Amino acid sequence: MVSATLTALSRGLRRRCPHCGRGALFSSWARHIDRCPACGLVYERNPGDTWAFTIIGDRIPVAILVVLVYFGLFRAHHALGLVAFGVLAVALVWTAPNRWGVGIALHYLSRLYWPDPADPIPGSIA
Questions:
Q1: DSSP H/E element including 54
Q2: Suppose 8 and one of 18, 54, 70, 112 were both cysteines; which one would form an S-S bond, judging by CB atoms 3.0 to 4.6 Å apart?
Q3: pTM for this structure?
Q4: In the chain, what are the helix, strand and coil shares in percent, each to the nearest 5?
């Protein structure tokens, strides 16, 4: 089960379907599609299902940046602070779809570990 977990997470990180790895998660930079075109997996059964996983992957890095600002990294070294802030801001925006893909993969894994008989998950992982 560990290898299936790592496989699903790596597929999500690459913005691919966590179930089959063939279908795309997004139709554009930040617009995810409803289901996998290859295997038919519904990525988000109900609106907001992936919200908690997105918060974990999206808001915690922003909170770390706020803590760095609050505790004075930027006050002690102005130039270093501005460069670090710029690099972190670009990294957060650049990697957003990858982090959202991991959030979708985490939601998929939660559906595998705690199955619902009404959940339309296709057959075993390819």
A1: helix 51-70
A2: 18
A3: 0.79
A4: 55, 5, 40
Rounded to whole angstroms, the Cα distance separating 20 from 11 reads 8
- DSSP-derived 3-state class of residue 43: coil
Is residue 57 within 8 Å of residue 100, measured between CB atoms?
Answer: yes
* Sign of the dihedral through C-alpha 113, 119, 124, 125: negative
Q: Span 117-125, mean pLDDT?
A: 72
Rounded Cα distance, 54 and 49, in Å: 10
What's the chain's length in residues? 126
Residue 107: how many other CB atoms lie within 10 Å: 20
How far apart are the C-alpha atoms of 97 and 14, rounded to whole Å? Answer: 9
Contact between 74 and 61 under an 8 Å Cβ cutoff? The reply is: no
Give, in order, the Cα–Cα distances in Å from 126 to each of 20, 38, 63, 116, 119: 5, 11, 37, 20, 18
Rounded-to-integer distance, Cα 8 and Cα 79, Å: 40
